[in-house]
Amino acid sequence: MNSLPPYKPMRMHILLAQVACVLLMLVTSLAFMALYVSPQTTVLFQWIGVSLPFLLFGNLIFLFIALYRRSWYSICPMIAILANFHYFSQMVRQHTGEEVHMVDIRFATFNVREFKMIYNMSSMEQIAEYLSSNKINTICLQEVPAECSVADLKRVFTSMPYVVITGGRPGQNQLAILSAYPLDHVTTVSFEERPNCSLFADMTIKNEKVRIANCHLQTTNWNQVKGTIFQQEHDKGSWIEAFAKMSSNFRYRSRQVDTIRSIIDRSPHPIIVGGDFNNSPVSYAYNTIKGDLKDAFREVGNGYGYTYRNLLKLYRIDFVLFSGTKLQVSNYRTGDVDFSDHLPVLVDVTIN
Hints:
Blueprint: H1 12-29, H2 44-50, H3 52-68, H4 75-83, H5 85-91, E1 92-93, E2 105-111, H6 124-133, E3 138-144, H7 150-156, E4 162-165, E5 174-179, E6 183-191, E7 194-205, E8 208-216, H8 222-231, H9 236-265, E9 271-276, H10 284-290, E10 294-295, H11 296-300, E11 303-304, E12 318-322, E13 327-334, E14 345-351
Parallel strand pairs: 2-3, 8-9
Antiparallel strand pairs: 1-11, 2-14, 3-5, 4-5, 6-7, 7-8, 9-12, 10-12, 13-14
């Protein structure tokens, strides 16, 4: 009579690894919910969306380990990675592009970080020279310092004589739209007395009106809270406070984008939206503003797309969106410059 093989109990560390693998798959697979569920309902999915690069990396580690051990658990990280295929198309594109000689609008958006470089040296002249060398004729600037006036911008950005700014109270940064083409119907949209806002203006070009929207959404406060977290890493209160602060900012952004979306929907003209959204493409903020607009990076971008130089260069948070029915983009690039913690985004636009 054949005896049964001896019973081998599963080691605890293997069981825990398998449980972690399944949980990681489930959490990662829910990232798409960040596109549709407002932070007013829950911020959970926004945190999953912003953590997605790290979650995908964790799944990749589990995949290699499972394949090496020839475990059927390799299917879990595969499901998580495939479920987020949309993320890869948001961050990596391959577009050879066709040379277009007739470009109507050479557009850029740039968070200039108060025109302060290292040691707080002014970067205004360098930025103006860089944009001029790239033949930019329309630009949206974010974080223009409060003391900067229209006259200051006209003096430095000489190729763009039409300038509108939001103005504001002392100590609050401004938004600015500069163009070589006339600007009118200027509107500033404030958000519940928050320092962030949006600036709209109609640009006249080729007897056509194109609405320009410059958006700077609620900050993440990452630069403010990271010092507290890392200096007091054993203080649970600092972690909770930082998490609560950043969660509140998700909610602020959701209210802001709902307002902006309603204005975009009422626009009688084709629109170009540029700005610092302080959120990744896997977020309610991005998805709401984008709506039926097209993302310039997804249309003609090439290579790995990031616009924020910190946080391991993992995030694309500066965007150029446009009305695809009337406008067409032919070139997308980011500037390899260190004038700010953001990269400038440059896009060539043609009016159909």
